[in-house]
Write a structure and sequence with these properties.
Blueprint: E1 4-13, H1 22-32, E2 39-43, E3 47-49, E4 60-70, H2 75-88, E5 103-109, H3 117-124, H4 128-133, H5 150-159, H6 172-177, H7 181-185, E6 188-189
Antiparallel strand pairs: 1-4, 1-5, 2-4, 3-4, 3-6
Length: 191
């Protein structure tokens, strides 16, 4: 039996694609996540959140999932799989933090820190103005913004509440509790 580990992903959409609404896109994308190498272990409910940054477009539908992957999986290959799913739903990478038909972020792969702790810490500590204009040229794990975003942490808390950030040494629930109550309240479950 092959060793397995968890990959955490976040999904978001705020534009329709073909005849599908953002909530249908997220549901369909969650169904596409599993393949012969990955199995979806848990999926969160769907949540509605204001666009980020605020006022930049229609509200988003967000969700999170836990994938079961082989422990020797290449995180870049996992990311390519996620980008392939995005492309099926019309994703274009024109504007950083812009509106989109589908965004799937690879948040974490087990306790992996990539490419190294210093680089992850540098990207995690970027000033807000630099976050909006700079894009890393390599995969950074854990995702450098996950601890700052209620629209990621609220769904993630449903599927991986006890996952611990390997550098911050805080669980998903602890990172979520550290956010303001106003930020957490903006993330509303879709009934």
């Amino acid at each position: 039996m092959q060793n397995r580990m968890q990959a955490l992903v976040a999904l978001g959409a705020n534009l329709p694609f073909d005849a599908a609404s953002p909530d249908q896109i997220i549901t369909d994308a969650l169904n596409c996540l599993g393949n012969s190498w990955y199995k979806v272990r848990r999926k969160s409910r769907l949540f509605k959140t204001p666009a980020y940054p605020k006022g930049s477009g229609p509200d988003y539908v967000n969700a999170a999932a836990v994938l079961d992957i082989a422990s020797d999986s290449d995180p870049q290959a996992v990311l390519r799989h996620l980008h392939d799913i995005e492309a099926r739903f019309g994703r274009r990478r024109d504007t950083r933090w812009g509106t989109r038909t589908l965004d799937i972020d690879l948040l974490a792969v087990g306790g992996l820190v990539a490419p190294d702790p210093a680089t992850q810490t540098r990207w995690r500590n970027l000033p807000p103005a630099d976050q909006a204009r700079l894009t890393p040229d390599q995969l950074i794990l854990p995702h450098p913004r996950l601890q700052d975003r209620a629209f990621v942490l609220v769904p993630l808390a449903e599927v991986a509440p006890d996952w611990v950030h390997p550098l911050l040494q805080r669980s998903v629930l602890q990172m979520l509790d550290a956010l303001s109550s106003a930020d957490r309240a903006e993330v509303r479950a879709i009934v």
